């Protein structure tokens, strides 16, 4: 990847925004709720402080590293002779000096400051995206746990109905007591799973409450249906590359490395130091006024520093190329995951519906005296497994689609860009 790519970012971004309105967003977590929770996230407080520190660093980088230095000397000259005549002369000298940056070093420092001002917002936006992704992962973890708990409670109710049906047949003499025991064992097994699911749901919600100060009224009652991923891979690549903060950061790191190399090259010629001084000697009869100048003699260490910084430029450029390739691969993987999970959910939903109907028919047949309890329990287990698969596939489809939206900044875009708090 070359730096010329970044000159095309405004065009790419406008191309992405043209069709952004066509992208539907199923409501999983209201934006107002998400942003309220994120404001209390310690990770964001840290990002705010890091941004402020980076802006201060940029201001420092543009300024001269040298201070004015005041100096002074005092001495007493002994004019006494061997016979004890004469007196001492109190003499003093004061001066002011400063090292001055050469013009090419000023330009290099200004370039470094500019690079820092490019990196700081990119790092800040990246921190916001990571915080939002962490919140969504925690939220979907709770949604998955809650959906499984709800599903198992429903299945427990169905198995309780089965136990009741088997009990009636045992009382009427149409079934053996062994069948009732098998049905009761099935009920105990589902009760154990319900207990585990309840604990998992409580654990997931406790994490949300502890980190994001989530409250009970935010709990959703039902998940929306997943939707097919709109647009093709090419559209998503264009959109996501145009708003990718990691690419912006990598480009800024190249600019920073180039500025440091420029500074090291300029540093081969040391900065001069100039000063002025005044003083009095010989009982104050001699008044001194003068200037001083000093220039360090450069050593080989300075030329080696140039070579080191040039190597760092090469590293930064290669990292930019690597980042661009990695992001393209990540975009393709996330797009493939989103489309794949949606198709999996459709198939799982069809299987769950079919096996649920089959379980109902098997229960009716058993009530009418057809079939045995093993067939009844098998049908119920198959229905439960299919329902669990459909439920997990639904959450996975929504999770992967939301991740796609987040990385494309089609979700909470103003907040991700830092235009709103």
Short description:
68% of the residues lie in helices and 10% in strands. The protein is an alpha+beta fold and 421 residues long.
Q: Could you characterize the architecture of this molecule?
A:
The chain has eleven helices and four strands; from the N terminus they run ααααββααααββααα. It has 421 residues and is of the alpha+beta class. It has a single domain, classed as Outer membrane efflux proteins (OEP). Helix 4 runs antiparallel to helix 5, helix 5 runs antiparallel to helix 8 and helix 7 crosses helix 9. The longest helix is centred in the N-terminal third of the chain and has 69 residues. It is elongated, with a radius of gyration of 37 Å. The two termini are 34 Å apart. The relative contact order is 0.15.
Radius of gyration over C-alpha positions, nearest whole angstrom: 37 Å
Stretches with pLDDT under 50, minimum 5 residues: 1-19
Strands, count: 4
* Structure class: alpha+beta
How is the main sheet built?
A: 4 strands, antiparallel
CATH architecture: Up-down Bundle
Instruction: Return the CATH topology.
Output: Outer membrane efflux proteins (OEP)
Can you identify the CATH superfamily?
Outer membrane efflux proteins (OEP)
Name of the top-level CATH class? Mainly Alpha
Instruction: Tell me the strand percentage band.
Output: 5-15%
Strand order across the biggest sheet? Answer: 1-2-3-4
Q: State the domain count.
A: 1
Task: Give the helices and strands as they follow along the chain.
Answer: HHHHEEHHHHEEHHH
- The shape, in one word, is elongated
Oligomer: single chain
Helix content: 55-70%
Report the end-to-end length measured between terminal Cα atoms: 34 Å
User: Which whole number gives the mean pLDDT?
Assistant: 87
Q: Number of DSSP helices?
A: 11
